[in-house]
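Person: Show me a sequence?

Helper:
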Amino acid sequence: MNEVFKWEFTDWGPNYISFSGANIDGGFNGEGGAQVSNGGVLVVIYANDLNQTLECVVKAGGEISKPTL
């Protein structure tokens, strides 16, 4: 998603990728059995034009798993 959000990504193996360049560094865990619980972290990504950003994500090969309302 570098072409959409202009972040830099580093692959650390088949289940983890980190990112930088978003005014904060972070990462994504791809473990299939990870449990989500109350009190977890909520990630919010702001976009000036949400519809345009969603279109760019899809064009870049991304998948929208839950559409916006």
Summary: The mean pLDDT is 84. Residues 5 and 11 are 17 Å apart (CA to CA). The chain has one domain: 2-32+40-59. The chain is about 20% helix and 20% strand.
